[in-house]
Design a protein that fits this description.
With about 80 residues, this protein is mostly helical. The chain has one domain (about 5-80). About 85% of the residues lie in helices and about 0% in strands. It has three helices and no strands. The chain has helices at about 5-25, 30-50, 60-80. It is elongated and about 45 Å long.
Length: about 80
Amino acid sequence: MEEKELLPHLFRTEYRKIISVLCKLFGIEHIEIAEDIVSDTFLLASQTWGLKGLPKNPTAWLYTISKNKALDFLKHNKIFT
């Protein structure tokens, strides 16, 4: 698969799965936040991979960044609550 086709393919195949994983880890009540985080992760991937090239495991990169963003959001939200 060519580089320019990889991100749309991953979006189609992994977007829902990553949201499901985040909801499993942090609770279904955060589904809207999970959707936003995963969308931001794909946007970050398009920017980062365009400049730095593809990571060794793009799917794992997406899951890791999404999970870290969710943890950061929940920590930030807890501070302000």
